[in-house]
Structures are given as structure tokens and as C-alpha cells.
Amino acid sequence: MRQPQLRAATSRPLSWRSNCTAAAASASQPSEPLSAHFTNGRPLSRAPAVVRDLSSVLRAILAASPSSHSRAYPLLKSAAFDARLAPDALVDAVLSAVGGPGSRQATALLSRLLASLCRAGRAGAAAAAYASMEARGVTPDAKSRTDLLAVTARSASAADALALLAEMRGKGRPLDAWMFDVVMRACFKEGMYDDAVRLFDEMPASEIEPDQRVCSVAIASLCKLRDANRALLVLRKMQDAGFVPWDFTFNSVVDVLVKGGRMEEALHIKDELLATGKKMSVVLATTLMHGYCLQREVRKALDIFEETLRDGLVPTDVTYTVLIRGCTEEGMPEKAYELCRQMRDHGLLPSTNEFNMVIKGLLNDKLWKDAVSLFKEMADSGIPDAFTYNILIHWLCQRRKIREALNLWEKMNETGVKPYIVTYHSLLLCYCVNGCMDEAVKLYTEMPGKGFTPNVVTYTTLMKGHINKAAFDKAYALLAEMKQNGVSCNDYTYNTLINGLCVVGRVCEVGEMLKRFETEGFVPTAMTYNSIINGFIKAGMMGSAFAVYQQMCAKGIPPNIVTYTSFIDGYCKTSCCDLALKMLNDVRCKGLRPDIAAYNSLIFGFCQEGNMSHALQVLVLMLKDGLLPNISVYNSFITGYKNLKMMEEALRLYEKMIKEGIDLDTATYTTLIDGFSKDGNVTFALKLYSEMVAKGNIPDHITFTALTHGLCRNGDIDDARKLLDEMNRLDIRPNVLMYNMLINGYLRNGKLQEAFRLHDEMLERKIMPDDTTYDILVGMKSLGSDSPIDAENPNLSSTG
């Protein structure tokens, strides 16, 4: 027969009473589930009749047998959960059934009810039931109060659980370690580490001995507070009490020691863990690696990493992140690159931040091919972001590797990664520096359609590009367009245009331009006057430059080292190195520190004059000022020694540069190749050429001219002829000097047909023969031993 369901007392009181009667009658029939009487989910009211009826049923059940409260509880639970009877009504019903709060049955039933409400997550109902019990003189047992603390922490907050525990203590209710553990864990999870430690400290006053769980939470909290000494103290007390710390406890202590730079103690704790028979976890190993990285002992961190691999531990992404960051910060980009690839092989991916660190590290170490390779491997993983693309594109553009930069730009567009405006600026700068102004202007016109408004940097970059192509009028036209689009000029823009006018040799017009800019609010600075002074000096107008210098001083703008460096350079290039040296000494007496450019101008000037002793004296001054020679200084000395045919000295400098790790550039190699070729050591010149190409230096037409000259002088005409093929491969256009030397060489060897074939090839390639070409062909006039390449490149000129 179907059991009747409990209905709301206010709507069906007769049904309620009949159900209670049925429940009372069923007290003697254990096969019938009492909870079937309370299956309706509608909440019951707090009507006295409801309480009386439930109380009557419970009284009847409990009267049947003193131990029958186990049959009474399901009915009470059903009333609470199925019928949703109010908590205070439930308490009243129980107390009425057992005759008051002093009954053990009341405490047992209500404690079970409180525990059930807590486990069901009904924090509000549990709190109301607890309050009602306390108000009526019933103290729930320890287990149910622990459950109440737990559900309060989960559903409300650790602060509420703390307040509840304080209330229990204030009323003199008995507490135990479980209760402290529950509240301390809640505090720990919410970052209330001070409160967790405070509770731990209060336990002795409550005559409660901390157990393993409580000690572990206290240690973890102390570690979060960076109180390593106290954490160690609690750990020792915990061990003295016979507790074996958990792995998490060991890890916490090691972590706080590591962060405090106390690696020796951290390693000792690790040894203690191993002594218990446990193995080092990947978490502990990673923590120790992090410690070594913090102490900049990355190699030791890598040793632990290798040890974990040998022990069969599987590194996590955190492990790799710690090592990658450590290697990158310690200047070990190749190892970071290896770890990044190893991470990928293990099915893990670095974060975008760490990936970008690896890319930057490789680029800083000039391992750009590895950077691009790693990027390609990760391009479709979603790891590279706009910043990644920008790092690579900017670096490649700075090194004029425009093809590689454009490949990345296309990939960026394909993958839908939106660029920054600085990405556009990097590409614009690359185009401008490489003289590709049509492409630069095209990219500029695309920007508005892509959602980027050109700004002052955009326009100024384009202006500099046009100026570099000697198209100053196009640069100046951008000024009007810039203003029309509402973009204001800054000082850098004005200075760029003033400098541009000087660069294209129109320095005499700069006065009018400066006045016009001043009416627009531009205030000339030292940079402005330095550009004008430098323009006059390069035009050979030292008097005009000095007049601008006086004007600059009259306006209260103090000359700086750039000003004096321009004058020093001007004096050196007009063969007045003594005056330049005097100015350098005057500058030093004024308390200004000459820069490397000033010293190099003097060194270059003395070297060009063949006065190597004075050049060396200037080098000594430079070293005293704490400046180290750069590639330009070395190139000046090598050129000077080459011009004096002192190739042994040039070779000594070359070897010193290699030893000190200074990267030789194309100019260095070309000068050495020319010098050794003229010295008859063509074999070493060819070795230098091979080394140059292997190191990534791109030879130019001057390099090939020097090699051609050396091979022709040595009678190796066929090998010299092969250089033309090498130039074709590198897309370098030969010059008329090379053809003249080759034609002359073939004629001297009696190979007239080869000589005239080269002449025809010149015409096919639109390289116009000059008078020397026809003198050789018609008059059979041989070139002298010193080739005309010196006239093309003053740096390769010979004084002998």
C-alpha cells in the first residue's frame, strides 16, 4: 500500500495528523521506512500543530524502545530535508519528544541532524539549528561542531569560521585538534596565514596537543609568512613528537629556505626526506632548481634536472619554466633553446612569456637563425603572440634582413595575429634604411585600413628614408601632409628635417628653415646646432661652422661632446690633425669626456697621414679615459698599417681582435684581403675571404675587386674569373675595374679571345667600358702593379 505524503500543516492539517498516526503505528513495524512520510519537497510552516504532531510521532518511536533513536533519526532527517521543516521547529519537536534538553537522546538526535545539514552544504540551516540548540541548552557533540566549522568556512569565509570557533571557546564548549585543523586550513586557503599561526599558538591554552595535521598547516603558514626559523622549530617539535612530516611539509620548508637563499639548509631538509625512505618528488626537485637559479648557480640547477631525469621523474611545465628563465637570465640562450625544444618533445608547451624570453636571448646572442627556427616550430601552437612577432621583426629589421622580416610579417597576417603600430614602424625603418622607399610608402598607405593611424614616429621615419635617398623635397612634403592629418611635429621631426637639409648638401638653406620652424614654436637645441655645424663641416666650410658655434654659445646653449667631435673630425679630414688634437685636449681640460667617435676621428686622421705613433698616443689617451677600442678604431689602425705595407702589424691586430672576441666586419676583412693581396700573400687573402663568408659577413664589390687584383697579380686569371660567378650568386654587381684587370690579365697571357669575350659580357651587363678598357684592348697597355681600386675606396689607398 502506498504511504501517504506529508503536506503543509496550514493547508491539510487532517492529512498531517493522519500521517503522524500512521508513523506512530509503524513504530512497531521496522520493515516500513519512516522517511516515506516526509517525501514532499514543499517547506512546512512553523505552526505549533506541526511541531506537536512531529513531536508525538518521535515520542511514540522513542517510547517503543530506549535505543530506538536510530529509527527516529530518519524521520527527523526526512522532515528536515524532504519537507524542509524550519530548524528551530525541528529542535523544538525533538526536545518536546524527549522531555527537555538534558536528555542524551536529544543531544544524539540533534547532533546527527546538525552533522547532516553540514554535510549537505546547507550552511544557513545548520547555523540556525546550532543557534537554536544553544539557545535551548543543547550542546552538539564535537564531531557535529567540527562539521559546522567546516561548512561555515566553505560556504561563508574563514573569518566566519574563526568567529564561530571563538564563540564556542567563549561559551566554554570543549574543543579538539580537528576543530583547530578545520579552521586553520580555511585560513590557509584564504591567505590568512597570521590567523592560522595564531590559532596554532592558542592550542596549548586550550590544553589541546597539536596533531600531525595541525602542525603541517602551521608549518605551511609560517613558510608563507617567510618565517623559516619558526617553521624549522615547529618541524623539529613535530618530529620529536613522533610524527613523520608529509612531503608537502618538507616541500614547504625547502621552498622558504630556498627563497631566503639558505640552500645548504634546504639541501639538508631534502636529505632528511630521503632518509625517511621517500624519494624526491618533481616538486621538491623543481624547488631546489629554483633556489640555485636564484643564486645564479644555474649549472647546479641543471645537475639536479639531469638527476631527476635519471631517476625517472617527469619534469613539469613549472620545472622547465624555472630552468628556461634561469638560463636566459644567466646568458645561456642555447641551453634555454634546448630546454624549450625538449619541453615540446615531452608534450609540454612553454608559456608565451618564457617563449619570448628564449627568443630574445637567442637574438641577443646573435643566434637569429635558431630563434627563427624555434619560432617556426611553435608558430601553429598559439604560443607566439604579437610581442613575439615584434621582437623578431624588429631585430631582423635592425640588421637589414628585410626578406626574413617580411616572411614573418606574412606569417603574422596568415595566423591572424594583430600587429602593434611599432611592428609597422620596424618594417618602415627597415625599408627606409635599405632604400626601398616605394615599399615603405605602400606600407604607410595600408596602415589606416588596418586600424592604425600614422603618428609622428611614422612620418619622421619616412622623412629620414627620403632624406637618405637624397629626396629632401619628398621628406619636406610629408610635413604638410602630417599637419593636415592633425599630427603635431616634435623636436625630433624638426631636427630630422634640419639634419636632412645638411645631409643632402643644402646647408646654406638651413637658416631660413630654422626661422620658419621657430615661428611654429620649435626651440633649437644642441642637437639642432650640432646638425648644422656638422653639415657645414662636411661641406668643407669650417668658417661657417665656427660661426654657428658662436651663435649657439650666444644663445646660452652649451656645446657638448658631439659639437667638439664634429670639429675634431673636420680638422682631421682637412689634414689638420694637430689642431684636432689640441681641441681634444681643450675638451678634456673643460671636464668633458671625449667619446669613442672623437678619439676614432683623430686615430683615423693620423693613420691616414701615416703617423702611426701619434695614432697610438691617442689610443693610450682613450684607454686612460676608460674607453675600449671598437671595430672602427681597429679598422683605422689596420688601414693605416696596410697603407704603410706593414701587414705584420695589421695581422697582429687581426689576431688580437679574434682573441678578444671582437666581430670583424666587411670593412675589416676587405682591408686585410687588399693588403695581403698586394703583399703577394693571395693564399692568406683567400683564407680570409672564406672566414669572412663563414661568419656571415657579406662581401661587397670592393672585396671582390681586391681579390681580383691579387689573383691577377699572381697570374691566377682563371680563379679571378670565377669571382664573377661568385658575385652573380650573391647578387653583387661587378665594376669596370674588375673587368679591366681580368681583360689585362688574359691579354698578358695571350688569351685574346677570352679578353674580348669579357668585353662583350660588360656590354651585355650594361657596364660601360672606360678609357682604360680601350687602352688595354687597343694599345695592349698593361695595368700597373697597383690597381685603380685605391681610387674607389680611400680606406684601401696605399702610400707606397
TrEMBL record:
Pfam families on file: PPR (PF01535), PPR_1 (PF12854), PPR_2 (PF13041), PPR_long (PF17177)
Domain PROP1-like PPR: 139-277
GO molecular function: mRNA binding
Keywords, sorted A to Z: Repeat, Transit peptide
Protein's name in the database: Os01g0611900 protein
Source organism of this protein record: Oryza sativa subsp. japonica (Rice)
InterPro entries xrefs: PPR/CCM1_RNA-binding, PPR_rpt, PROP1-like_PPR_dom, TPR-like_helical_dom_sf
Residues in PPR repeats: 176-210, 211-245, 281-315, 316-350, 385-419, 420-454, 455-489, 490-524, 525-559, 560-594, 595-629, 630-664, 665-699, 700-734, 735-769
Keyword field contains Metal-binding: no
